[in-house]
Design goal:
- It comes from Micromonospora pisi.
- Pfam families: SHMT.
- InterPro entries: PyrdxlP-dep_Trfase, PyrdxlP-dep_Trfase_major, PyrdxlP-dep_Trfase_small, Ser_HO-MeTrfase, Ser_HO-MeTrfase-like, Ser_HO-MeTrfase_PLP_BS, SHMT-like_dom.
- The chain is of the alpha/beta class.
- The protein folds into two domains: about 45-280, Aspartate Aminotransferase, domain 2 (3-Layer(aba) Sandwich), CATH 3.40.640; about 290-410, Aspartate Aminotransferase, domain 1 (Alpha-Beta Complex).
- The protein is about 45% helix and about 15% strand.
- It has a seven-stranded mixed β-sheet with strand order 4-10-9-8-7-5-6, with helices on both faces. Strands 11-12-15-14 form a four-stranded antiparallel β-sheet. Strands 1-13 form a two-stranded parallel ribbon.
- Helix 3 (about 40-50) packs antiparallel against helix 11 (about 265-280), helix 5 crosses helix 10 and helix 15 (about 380-395) packs antiparallel against helix 16.
- It is globular, with a radius of gyration of 22 Å.
- The N and C termini lie close together (about 5 Å).
Length: about 425
């Protein structure tokens, strides 16, 4: 059953409650390896479902446009103070609704329509909001896109520097949505200084690893840091922007009133809870275990013939090209889901297939680590993946069903935050 229990909802809307209960069981029974997903603690869940959702709080602590902020102001201040302490930054804004609006605030703060912004190309592992053509950021601004090397699958900072010197962007983004290797924040900072650009580190995927000391921090190198608060950080679906003191006012004005009205106070409280959890030694152990698990899984996948972008991973994320397996990413991901293994199909660098039917899959180790799995289980996970992909090629549904049962049996011994077996 869902934890916390939902008896009032069950009585008021049994149809919806049943769907929620089913989703909780699904999350319990499957190997959840979508790199942007995780499990939050029961404390985060409880904070998300409080009466804080009733309150409007346009403005910032001490400078609100509505009355009745006696307890909201301390909650937001607490979240800010915890973010500043955890990441070691001058300033934090915890109001952005999600990662994309957080990045949009950067554009509003520092750019005018048509200005040049530099980011990793989406097919290389970048994010839509780093200037890709179908995003407002690629339509309203002039995108300058860097790639990864065909040979290594890694960013060549010499090429990035040459491109930046030629194009002179006002803002440079580093980070992305499918980047399995360590981001060289000092190297990007040197390039940004040379061309007079503001450096923005988008650490949405790796924020928890940074907080836990399992990935180098952009603090001291990036002028602005944007991040979601879920993924590896294990908080609610929200976002933060952290800056040096110099850029605090510009960012705050861009978030409110520039882009949005009242913050979601229940989310702010949940962020505060997650940040407190992320300051513990248990969280540091988790962050390092995420990387150890991802690297163990990557090695086991390579042994089974999977071709990995850049050859492996330094963080939580693995990107695999399935061309040599004789199947595209989309049908493979769908078959893996039927086998109890949840991940997403994904473009790989220099992919010859279309984005909605790409060659690759993307997966991560954060949620498995939260459940308590270690390096010991990763060879079995890789074996199930290999067997399921082979079964998909042969339309062997019986094998997929068998694997799903074996996955469920394994996970029955690993508790899930937010769910308790009946």
């Amino acid at each position: 059953m869902h934890v916390p229990p939902i008896p009032t909802l069950t009585a008021a809307d049994p149809q919806l409650a049943a769907l929620i209960e089913s989703e909780a069981k699904r999350q319990h029974d499957k190997l959840r390896m979508i790199a942007s997903e995780n499990y939050v603690s029961t404390a985060v869940l409880e904070a998300s479902g409080t009466v804080l959702t009733n309150k409007y709080s346009e403005g910032y602590a001490g400078k609100r446009y509505y009355e009745g902020q006696q307890f909201i102001d301390p909650i937001e201040t607490l979240a800010i103070e915890r973010a500043r302490a955890l990441f070691g930054v001058d300033h934090a804004n915890v109001q952005p609704y999600s990662g994309s609006p957080a990045n949009l605030a950067v554009y509003l703060a520092f750019l005018s329509p048509g200005d040049k912004v530099m980011g990793m190309a989406l097919p290389m592992g970048g994010h839509l909001t780093h200037g890709w053509s179908v995003s407002a950021t690629g339509k309203w601004f002039t995108p300058v896109r860097y790639q990864v090397s065909r040979e290594t699958g890694r960013i060549d900072l010499d090429e990035v520097r040459d491109l930046a010197l030629r194009e002179r962007p006002k803002v440079i983004f580093c980070g992305g949505t499918a980047v399995p290797r360590t981001i060289d924040f000092p190297g990007f900072a040197e390039i940004a200084r040379e061309v007079g650009a503001i450096l923005v580190a988008d650490i949405a995927h790796i924020a928890g690893l940074v907080a836990g000391g399992a990935h180098p921090s952009p603090v001291g190198y990036a002028d602005v840091i944007t991040t979601t608060t879920h993924k590896t950080l294990r908080g609610p679906r929200g976002a933060m922007i952290m800056t040096t003191a110099e850029y605090a006012s510009a960012i705050d004005k861009a978030v409110f009133p520039g882009l949005q009205g009242g913050p979601h106070n229940h989310t702010t409280a949940s962020i505060a809870v997650a940040l407190k959890e992320a300051s513990t030694e248990d969280f540091r152990r988790y962050a390092h275990q995420v990387v150890a698990n991802a690297q163990a899984l990557a090695a086991a996948m390579v042994e089974r013939g999977f071709e990995l972008s850049s050859g492996g991973t330094d963080n939580h994320l693995i990107l695999a090209d399935l061309t040599s397996k004789g199947i595209a990413g989309k049908p493979a991901a769908q078959a893996l889901d039927r086998a109890g293994i949840e991940l997403n199909y994904n473009t790989v660098p220099y992919d010859t297939r279309k984005p909605f039917d790409p060659s690759g899959i993307r997966l991560g180790a954060a949620a498995l680590t939260t459940r308590g799995l270690t390096e010991q289980q990763m060879p079995q996970v890789a074996a199930w993946m290999d067997e399921a992909v082979s079964a998909a090629v042969k339309d062997d549904e019986a094998t997929l069903d068998r694997i799903a049962g074996e996955v469920s049996d394994l996970l029955a011994t690993y508790p899930m935050p937010g769910y308790a077996s009946a």
